[in-house]
Design brief:
By secondary structure, the chain is mainly beta. It is 11% helix and 43% strand. A 4-stranded mixed sheet has the order 1-7-6-3. A 3-stranded antiparallel sheet has the order 2-5-4. This is Secreted protein.
């Protein structure tokens, strides 16, 4: 589970640092990312979370998050809360890992009885910016 959370944090981090693009994903896809996420039928799965940490380990402003393309076979719930960051050993902000940081994120729940592939596209916009980042999440739901 810990490695999954670390991976999800990496997915979320790409939302903030991916290349510039316009706010309409139909016209510009540069900087977009695609990830595969495993999920279990009948269970809620964490897709990703996104946060910003200031140099003093306080919370940065949380990005705006939205579902651009909803899944065909389930639902996505967006949340706001706190997480503990997971900076790698040796990173200048590794000391912040023990803190709780304001975050936004998303959970996926497959519809009852569904097993198979589903896709979600989410966007993130940094506060004070007109730059949107898009992530396509291909979800593989198994029994």
């Amino acid at each position: 589970m810990k490695s999954l959370l670390c991976g999800l944090t990496l997915v979320a981090s790409s939302l903030v640092v991916s290349s510039c693009q316009t706010s309409d994903p139909k016209f510009t896809k540069s900087g977009s990312a695609i990830y595969s996420i495993p999920a279990k039928a009948g269970h809620k799965t964490g897709l990703l979370n996104n946060y910003m940490v200031n140099p003093d380990c306080s919370s940065g402003r949380t990005p705006d998050f939205k579902v651009v393309t909803a899944p065909a076979n389930g639902t996505v719930d967006l949340w706001r809360g706190t997480v503990s960051p997971s900076f790698r050993p040796g990173h200048p902000q590794e000391k912040c890992n023990a803190r709780k940081i304001a975050a936004v994120g998303a959970y996926y729940t497959p519809r009852a009885g569904f097993v198979g592939s589903d896709t979600v596209v989410v966007s993130s916009k940094a506060p004070g910016s007109d730059v949107f980042s898009y992530v396509t999440l291909n979800i593989n739901v198994t029994k």
